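ok so heres the complex, two chains, lmk if somethin looks off
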Amino acid sequence: MAKVNPHFQRIQREIIFPVIEKKMEGKKNLVNLGIGDVALPLTPHISQAIKDATTEMTNRPIGYGPAAGYSFLRSALSEKHNVPAGEIFISDGINSDLAGIQELFDTSCKIGVIDPGYPVFGDTNIMAGRDITLLPCTLENNFIPQPPSCHLDLIYLCSPGNPTGVAMTTSDLEKWIDYAKEEKALIIFDAAYNSFITSDNVPKSIYDIPGAKSVAIEMHSFSKSHGFTGLRCAYSIVPHETGLNAMWQMRQNTKYNGCPYIVQKGALAALTCLDSKRQVQSYLECAQMLKNALGNEIFGGKDSPYLWWKVPEDMTSWQFFDLLLDEHNIVSIPGLGFGKSGEGYVRLSAFTTKPEVEKALQRLNVYAH
Amino acid sequence: MAKVNPHFQRIQREIIFPVIEKKMEGKKNLVNLGIGDVALPLTPHISQAIKDATTEMTNRPIGYGPAAGYSFLRSALSEKHNVPAGEIFISDGINSDLAGIQELFDTSCKIGVIDPGYPVFGDTNIMAGRDITLLPCTLENNFIPQPPSCHLDLIYLCSPGNPTGVAMTTSDLEKWIDYAKEEKALIIFDAAYNSFITSDNVPKSIYDIPGAKSVAIEMHSFSKSHGFTGLRCAYSIVPHETGLNAMWQMRQNTKYNGCPYIVQKGALAALTCLDSKRQVQSYLECAQMLKNALGNEIFGGKDSPYLWWKVPEDMTSWQFFDLLLDEHNIVSIPGLGFGKSGEGYVRLSAFTTKPEVEKALQRLNVYAH
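and the predicted structre for the whole thing:
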C-alpha cells in the first residue's frame, strides 16, 4: 500500500467522547452538562427562512454557489463587522476553517496553541508534520495564555476560551498583537463564543485592538450563537492586510464548493433573530446559576457558556468525572481531554435548560459554597 | 509574516470560469452548454423531506451529528452498494473528499492523475508538495487512461469521465486493478456521474471488478444524480480492506463536523425519488440530441452528460470557444481548462433542457453531419 502520512500516529490524545459515551451507557436520569451542543430547538424565524429557500429551489434551479459564500450573506456580515465583504468567507463550520488554515503555511512554521484548548488547533498541525508549542492556561496566569519568550509563526487563540470559559481583556489581547508584530507572526483568533460576552473590558473582536488587521484572522460561527450546530454555517475574516486573502480564496476555490444555499439563507435570517439572542441569554443564566451555587473553585461562566471547575485535591479530572457521574448522575468533561494543562479540572457546559440546572444543583448540593 | 506554503504558487492552471464569465458579459440570448450544474429545479419529494426535517429541528434540539454521517443515511447507502455501513462516510461534497484524501499519504507518494481531468485531483497534491504524473486521455487511446510503465502510489480515475464524457469498460478497469495490485497502489475512483451510465459493459462501481476493494476508494455524489449541487451532499466508500478506514474516520473526526441534518434527510429521500431518475433521463436525452446532430467528431455523451467535441483543424480550444460564443451565442468550456491534453477540444454539457438544445442546434446547423 502507498506509504501513509506518518504524522497521524503522533496524535496521542485520547478521543474522550466515545469513552464518555461508554461510561454513560445504561445510566438513567442523567443531567448532561458535558457537550457544548444546542439544548434549545431551532427558532421558528430561522426555520421559516430555510423552508422558504427550499421552496425557492423547487421553483428554479439553484446550483453551485460561490465557494466564499453568497453575496447576500457576505454583505450582511460585512456590515455587522465593518470589514469589506471580500474579507468574509462563509463555510460549513469553524472546525473546517480552523483545520484548513494551516495549509497556507510552510511545514517549517512554529505553531503555538493554547493548552487546554480545542483539539483541532494542534492536531491539524501535527497531522501536517509540524511540532507545536503549548501555551498553558492555568490558575497561575488566570487561564489567560501569555506570549512566550520563543519565536512562533502561527498562534491559535480562543476567547472566550473553550474549555476554560475565561475571556481575554483588551490588555490581554494587546500583548498578543504586540508579540505578533514583533515576531511577524499570525494569530488565528477563534471567536466562536463571542455572543456570550457580558464584560465591558472584553472585546468581541480582536480587530478592536488597533493594528490587529495585519496580524490576525478571526473566525466566527453560527453554531453556538444561533443554534446551528446541526445546520453547519461559519465564517472567517481574512483581512487584505494579512496578505493572505487571495491565498485563502484560492484554497477555498480549489477544495470547497460552498455552504448550502438553504443554510446560508437560514444564517441570514439568524442575524436578525431575536429568539437567538434570548437563547444565548438563557444559556448565560444557566451558567450564572451554576457559578453562583458552586462557588470559588469554579472559573469562567461569565462571558461564556462554559465553567471550569477545579477538582478536589488528590483527584484526577477523570476520577472527578467518574464521581460526578456515578454518585450524582451528572455528565461533565474531564479537563485532560483538552490537553495536559486541563488536568485538575472538569468542564461544565451551560448549554442546557434551567430545570436541568436546578436538578443538577440539588444533586451537587454537597459542593455548594 | 509567517512563511507561506510555497507550493500554492506551483498551480499554474488558468482559472477559466472567471475568464469565461467575463467573455459572456453583456451578451444576450446565450445558450449555456458550459457548466455542469443543475438545469432543473429540486424535486418536490426531496424538498418536502428537507422541510419536514427543518420542522423537526424546531420541535426538539438537533445538534452535532456524527462526522461520518447519520446512520439512517449510511445504512441506506450500505444497502444500495452492498458494503458495510461503516465503510460509508457522508460529506458535504465529493470535492471535499477528493481534496482531503491525499492527507492520509506521505508527501513522497507518486501521484497519477487523468489529463484532461477535474482540477482538484492534481491541484490538491501539488499544494501538498507532491509532483504529479499526467495520464493522458486522448483520441489515440479513445480517451481511456492507461496504466503507465512507471510506479505510482495514488491514482485518480473518473468514469464516466469529466470532461471527456467517455466511460471505462470492465476490461479497462481490470487493467487498473491489476496495476494497483502489482504496484501496491491505491485508486481514488470518482464515480460522480455513474447514474448516467447506459452501456452494458460499463460498471457503475469499480467494486464490480473482483479484488478492487483492497485497492480502491470510491467516491459518489448526490450533485449530478439528484440535483444537489446547491445542497451539498456526497459520500466516500473506504473499504476496510484498504487499511485506511480508521485513518479516514480519524481525519473526518478531526477536521469535519458532518453534513447538515436537513441535507442528509433530503439525501435519504433522494434515494427513492423517481423524479430524480427522470431528470437524469432528461439530461441524457439532451446529450443524445447533441451527439446525434453534431456527428463524428463528438465523443462521450452516451454514459455521461458531457460531450467532448473536437475543434476544427488549426484552431485552439479557446479560439473555438470564442467562435461558438461570438458567432453562435453558445457557451462551451475550452478543453485546455481541464489540462494540456484537453487542448483541441471543447466540452459541451447536457445539463440543460430540450428547448435549449433545440435552440443550440439551430444555431450550430453548420456543424451538423
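quick notes: The longest strand of chain A covers residues 216-221. thats all i got rn
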